[in-house]
UniProtKB/TrEMBL annotation:
The keyword Membrane applies. This is CDP-alcohol phosphatidyltransferase family protein. Keywords: Membrane, Transmembrane, Transmembrane helix. The chain crosses the membrane at residues 45-66, 133-152, 194-211.
Length: 226
């Protein structure tokens, strides 16, 4: 995510930052410094995250069509690409804030690539489960839920000035769950039940996140007007 320092927020972009422990990781900070020194902008990193997401989604969607012996390696590769997408979300913020490379279009690149990445990955997860209309529908439903959580977060920022990153299954947790659980499903004797469980977990966890953020927002607004 492209984020700006507290002293120079762009219009429409909150100065709040998602609490992520990895942001203080020395290795990640060195990578961010290297990217900044190479004049790679936060927006370019945000776009790179979409490429990682597209490759991950394509990897997942192709799994049902492949011979059994190829599925786990490709699922593992897709999981690593999902993690690369997540790391890109951290690096663009580090470059934007810590290295003062924020741009006027940062507010757009802060959100739009993330929403597209969610659709690409989650649709791929659905098609990994079933390469048919049911799988596509499941993936698109997960995508809508993920976009809903982001919408409520941004709406809350516009209405209250504070972004709510609560879970139980916010973006970092979704990324970690998919990257770990989907490849593991292809190591099990029966893959489809494991993928079904993953889909239900993603759906229930993301829906719970959406409802919890909406509850927090309404509670805050009602408190302000009481």
């Amino acid at each position: 995510m492209n984020e700006l320092p507290l002293s120079t927020p762009l219009a429409g972009q909150s100065s709040n930052r998602r609490p992520v422990a990895l942001r203080t990781n020395k290795m990640l900070q060195r990578v961010a410094r290297h990217l900044a020194n190479r004049d790679i902008s936060p927006n370019q990193i945000s776009l790179a995250s979409v490429i990682f997401a597209a490759a991950a989604g394509l990897s997942f969607a192709s799994l049902p069509w492949l011979p059994a012996e190829w599925r786990f390696p490709l699922a593992l590769g897709g999981g690593l690409l999902v993690l690369a997408r997540g790391l890109s979300n951290l690096l663009d913020g580090l470059v934007a804030i810590e290295h003062q490379r924020a741009t006027a279009s940062g507010a757009f690149f802060n959100e739009a690539p993330d929403r597209l990445s969610d659709v690409l990955i989650l649709t791929g997860v659905g098609l990994a489960w079933r390469a048919d209309f049911a799988g596509l529908s499941a993936g698109l439903l997960l995508s809508l839920l993920a976009m809903g959580t982001a919408y409520v977060r941004v709406l809350g920022s516009n209405l209250t000035g504070t972004e709510d990153y609560c879970g139980p299954l916010a973006k970092p947790q979704r990324i970690g769950l998919i990257a770990l659980a989907l490849p593991l499903a292809f190591l099990l004797p029966r893959t489809e039940p494991a993928l079904t469980l993953l889909l239900f977990t993603l759906a229930l966890g993301t829906a719970g996140t959406l409802l919890r953020r909406l509850h927090h927002l309404l509670k805050t607004l009602n408190h302000r007007h009481s």
